[in-house]
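Quick one: structure for this chain?
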Amino acid sequence: IIWLSVAVLAIGLSFGAESDIIAFLIYRHFGGRIYSTVHGLTSSMVAVSATIGAALLAIVLHVTDAYLPFLMGTGLCVLAGGLLLLLLPRNGISEGEDAAASHEPQPAAS
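Got it. Here's what it folds into:
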């Protein structure tokens, strides 16, 4: 039961960190001008993915009567998603680019 408690704690911490990391990466790579649009789309895709995952789990359990195929598939998807994050450019949008894109006046250089 201790291992189960540790697993539940790890899952809870990862869900909590997920939203913070997504928000940071969106702001860093898209800026504040379209932040809410991109964050809304990302949140919607997370919800849709969770729904599809639940349905897919039910189908896999009905067909195979085992969790292993689903866990292997989701593990590969998580690995692929993590590797895709490595393709993001190191430097996101700068404050100057974000202000120029939204046609806001930039502060004078001193």
